[in-house]
Amino acid sequence: MPQPIIRIDNIVKRYGPLTVLDGLSMNVMPGEKLALIGPSGSGKTTILRILMTLETISGGHIEVDGEQLYHMAGSSGLVPADERHLHRMREKIGMVFQHFNLFPHKCVLDNVTLAPMLTKGIKRPQAEKRAMELLDMVGLADKAKSVPAQLSGGQKQRVAIARALALSPKIMLFDEVTSALDPELVEEVLNVMRRLASETDMTMLLVTHEMGFAHDFADRVLFFDRGKIVEEGKPGDIFRNPTQERTQTFLRKIIAAGHRV
């Protein structure tokens, strides 16, 4: 049996007196497509930011690809990870954010090539070749020399996806990647993610309010509330026959707001 590529064991995350994640444990298998759903403030984005080491943990352990994320071997057992260890672990993970975070004064091609050249020492010709392949995959090869201000929101988000893929991560994290987009631009970004899900064996974690897409995309759906997993299962089971009252209430509100499930 394959081992989980992500093991989250009893993690706690606090911001002062506020506990956002409270003893959370979950596993993600290699190649699994996982959708994290739930109300705002339930801890979904915090999980992604912790995996990306943008936030630290207050307790517990996380393994990524068989290695501790926030700890490393010391002379007397596990010790907190140093920056060198964290940097190496970050290379296993890519993340696409809600608000693109592109460099505004660099062209699309430079936005995609910069990280591989700086962090992996890849020479410019090789980095540009790979970048053009990725831009072609997301349908933006003709925008390589454009700057972000010349792009639509959907195009910016597709560039952000290509940029994250340029580092060849084993795991991709998507944090509400369509929520800042005009409705007519959402589908072009979702189409890229559908292609990624169907054509690659990459492990993907998605935080989204696009329930219809989560249903079609995910192998497994986790419903979060107040820092805990309330219910998990296959998309058809969660969206059609949720067993927990809290899940049922949440989905009723989503449907009433006009979202497809």
TrEMBL record:
<dbReference type="InterPro" id="IPR017871">
    <property type="entry name" value="ABC_transporter-like_CS"/>
</dbReference>
<keyword id="KW-0029">Amino-acid transport</keyword>
<keyword id="KW-1003">Cell membrane</keyword>
<keyword id="KW-0813">Transport</keyword>
<dbReference type="InterPro" id="IPR003439">
    <property type="entry name" value="ABC_transporter-like_ATP-bd"/>
</dbReference>
<keyword id="KW-0547">Nucleotide-binding</keyword>
<dbReference type="InterPro" id="IPR030679">
    <property type="entry name" value="ABC_ATPase_HisP-typ"/>
</dbReference>
<dbReference type="InterPro" id="IPR003593">
    <property type="entry name" value="AAA+_ATPase"/>
</dbReference>
<dbReference type="GO" id="GO:0015424">
    <property type="term" value="F:ABC-type amino acid transporter activity"/>
</dbReference>
<comment type="similarity">
    <text>Belongs to the ABC transporter superfamily.</text>
</comment>
<dbReference type="GO" id="GO:0016887">
    <property type="term" value="F:ATP hydrolysis activity"/>
</dbReference>
<dbReference type="Pfam" id="PF00005">
    <property type="entry name" value="ABC_tran"/>
</dbReference>
<dbReference type="GO" id="GO:0005886">
    <property type="term" value="C:plasma membrane"/>
</dbReference>
<dbReference type="InterPro" id="IPR050086">
    <property type="entry name" value="MetN_ABC_transporter-like"/>
</dbReference>
<dbReference type="InterPro" id="IPR014343">
    <property type="entry name" value="Ectoine_EhuA"/>
</dbReference>
<keyword id="KW-0067">ATP-binding</keyword>
<feature type="domain" description="ABC transporter">
    <location>
        <begin position="6"/>
        <end position="251"/>
    </location>
</feature>
<keyword id="KW-0472">Membrane</keyword>
<protein>
    <submittedName>
        <fullName>Ectoine/hydroxyectoine ABC transporter ATP-binding protein EhuA</fullName>
    </submittedName>
</protein>
<dbReference type="InterPro" id="IPR027417">
    <property type="entry name" value="P-loop_NTPase"/>
</dbReference>
<dbReference type="GO" id="GO:0005524">
    <property type="term" value="F:ATP binding"/>
</dbReference>
